[in-house]
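Researcher: Predict the fold of Tyrosine-type recombinase/integrase.
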Amino acid sequence: MYEFKNEDIDRLRRSGSGKHGPIGKRNPKKRFNGEGSVYPVPRTRKDGSTVTVYRAAKTIELGGKPKKITAQARTEREALERRDLKILKERVNYGLESPEAIPVDPKIARLTVGDCLMDWLNERKRGNLAPATIHMYDARIRNHLLPKFGSKPVRALTYEELKHYFTVTMPDRGLGVDSIRQTFICLRSALDYYQRDGILYRHPMIGLKAPAKKRKTVNDTKAIRKAADRLGPLIIQEAQKDKQELRWIFGLLGLRQAEVLGLTDDCFEERDGHFRLVVKQQLQRAGAEHGCELDTTSGKWECGKRTTQCPKKIGDNRWILKGTKTVNGYREIALTVELWVLAFNHIKAVKERRSLPTFHPEKGEGLDKLLFTRDDGKPIYGQRDRQALHKLLEQIEYNYGLPENMTVHTLRHMATTSLIDGGADPDHLISIMGWSPKNASAQISIYSSADTAKQAATTMGSYIDRILKPKNTGIPTGWEEL
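Model: Structure tokens for Tyrosine-type recombinase/integrase follow.
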């Protein structure tokens, strides 16, 4: 049996104190030039314990400048993989690699267009959108997008197939420009949502434009201009026969349809010597929600029935008073004494009708104080309101041609045109119409059909006079020689 000598003991002790031994500190493994580095970093947790993570770093050249890329993970291998992935993404951003070179997370690879659309729609529902807008988005997604693209992997969408769908398939089905635009906006916004979250790296709709809205023609402009000058008084005169003139006066003041139908007793104030109409809310129809599971590949509900007939229906269709369409939509409009008296008499008559046994308003905050209702106290549907306007127009003798496809909203265009012709400046238009100051110029161009030649007549007249009439300065001739 071999006996250890003192020399053996010293040699064994020295072997334990080497660079890679248990006593000595371990240094990072040397790497080849250009490979980068990876090293352990101790971290202290909230509970005081210590954990070691690994940080990988590498300096690369991008755009002619050096850039350091770092990543951190629990293991050395994972830190290197994360760092290399970040380097690849940077190279894609600089156009040095194709987006397809980035490896796809298996979870992301399984996401479909249906998942994308429903995730986006759920986020929109959590926002402050009007119920009618949510309903429109939901209908466009279920009726048009899910049946066509619902089961397709979202990363597999291509520019060519989307272009063909929006420019050929949808028009061939007889869908109008507005429906195609709304469907287009739904899909593009949903894809924007996924690109924002890093799920999509390449947007398949870049360069694809939504169908343009119908442009206002010269004849449209002339028709609205004539209507703004002559049609308003005729509508009021005809509406007086049924004591409904106040409703259409407010329309001709530029209020939106939902804003007029949502007016209540407390929307009128007398303050600082002025009678004011406070536009602070709008009437909205909120719908029930389907309680069944939606098949995102086909757009069909599990029960196969409509929302109102769903056995798991959530809530009921109901009326609500919601805030104005935008923050700037909240506004106060000064009223004349004559209009204030007219509003006072209307409110008085409505309050008398509320005491009748046949008056049964809808349940809901403020709905029992609506100023414009049906005879039984129920809110007025937008469709019924449009029919009332068309009935008035049929009874009016107006020989100048109505604006094409005239709706209740056309009254808002007429109001803008009349106000501009009357000399209203942009600040006054913003306060009356409830526009955003940032978009005032765009709104004026959309809504106004004002007679710009009439507005510039004085300036043009002065210019013409200067051309036709020699300027007499009263200065004697020969002044220069003198």
